[in-house]
Design goal:
Rossmann fold, 8 helices, 15% strand
């Protein structure tokens, strides 16, 4: 870990996944202290409903861009707004806990609203990471991050990995099972 102090390493070893889930009021001063020691922060955001290998690869890529990775997680209301009334599959607390358990993730902060601009302005990441599916689109916070010399990087996507596709496959499998007479037990 470039520029890491012994207390940074100890903090990573001793910190439980629950302690990685923070509010902005805790995160911002923590980031200021860590930046004062020369550490750089990457930020990515999303719904992260039904975590899959594509999410993991993207998060590991994001973490490799800097010394710390902050994940902005859409709250339940904003997931419904973005994905429809049947979503999220898991509530924000569960999704945050799963993300926080990943080694690549240093902090998870839950935010409201479908856009991440406000949280990006508070975090001021050195690197803003989104999936390659954002190529040619306006990435929330990109202009702001670039205004102070930060970078915007797009992560490669794994083919065929998408939460919506997984939900569709599960629904189709369930429907087929019901047609064969093997419904819920």
């Amino acid at each position: 870990m470039p520029g890491a102090q012994p207390e940074d390493v100890a903090g990573r070893v001793c910190r439980t996944s629950q302690n990685k889930i923070v509010g902005l009021s805790e995160l911002v001063p923590t980031l200021e202290r860590r930046r004062a020691r020369g550490l750089r922060a990457a930020f990515t955001n999303g719904c992260f409903d039904l975590l899959h290998a594509g999410h993991v690869e993207s998060l590991e890529f994001a973490r490799a861009q800097a010394d710390l990775l902050i994940v902005g997680l859409n709250d339940d209301a904003s997931v419904r707004q973005l994905k429809g009334e049947s979503r999220p599959v898991y509530p924000a607390g569960d999704r945050a806990r799963i993300l926080a358990a990943l080694e690549a993730v240093d902090y998870v902060v839950i935010f409201g609203g479908p856009r991440a601009e406000e949280i990006i302005r508070a975090v001021r990441p050195d690197v803003l990471v989104k999936g390659q599916d954002w190529e040619g689109k306006t990435v929330d916070g990109a202009a702001f991050v670039q205004s102070y010399g930060g970078r915007v990087v797009l992560a490669r996507l794994l083919e065929g990995r998408a939460t919506s596709r997984t939900i569709q496959r599960l629904a189709l499998g369930s429907a087929a099972e019901n047609q064969r007479g093997g419904g819920p037990k």
